[in-house]
Amino acid sequence: FPRSAAAQSGDAIFVFGGQSHRGLSNALYVWGTDTNGELGWKFFGGDHESNSVGRFGQQKSFSAHKYPSARAGACMDFITSSHALLFGGRGLDSKGKRFLLFHVSCI
């Protein structure tokens, strides 16, 4: 999947979502140094399947077990060193319907 939203936090770069011939993605990957000092990509969250509707919970609460639906063309930026906001994109709502997304998700 070519990734579509990217943001930097500390010495790591995070990329989210994207689109390929298989559909839309909601996977979150990080590029940085692991605990062994090796530089590379690591899967950080989301689904490994295409066109996922994500996992949603209570508004204004952060959780590693929640993540936004699959999308491409979104914008992402960190608001703290460990919390990012994802805005918009072309993707899926919570029911799996495709359209332009105009809401903010916390990841």
Strand ordering within the main sheet? 1-2-3-4
The number of distinct β-strands equals 8
Order of helices and strands: EEEEEEEE
Radius of gyration, whole Å? 13 Å
The helix fraction, in percent, is under 10%
The overall pLDDT average reads: 85
Given the helix and strand composition, which structural class is it?
mainly beta
**Low-pLDDT runs:** none
Question: Which tags fit this structure?
Answer:
107 residues; mainly beta; 4-stranded antiparallel β-sheet; 8 strands; 52% strand
Description:
This protein has 107 residues and is mostly beta strands. The chain contains no helices and eight strands. The chain has strands at residues 5-9, 12-20, 23-33, 39-45, 71-72, 75-78, 84-92, 98-106. The protein has a four-stranded antiparallel sheet with strand order 1-2-3-4, with no helix packed on it. Strands 5, 6, 7 and 8 form a four-stranded antiparallel sheet that branches. β2 (12-20) and β3 form a beta hairpin. It starts with a strand and ends with a strand. The mean pLDDT is 85.
Draw up the topology in text:
Elements: E1 5-9, E2 12-20, E3 23-33, E4 39-45, E5 71-72, E6 75-78, E7 84-92, E8 98-106
Antiparallel strand pairs: 1-2, 2-3, 3-4, 5-7, 6-7, 7-8
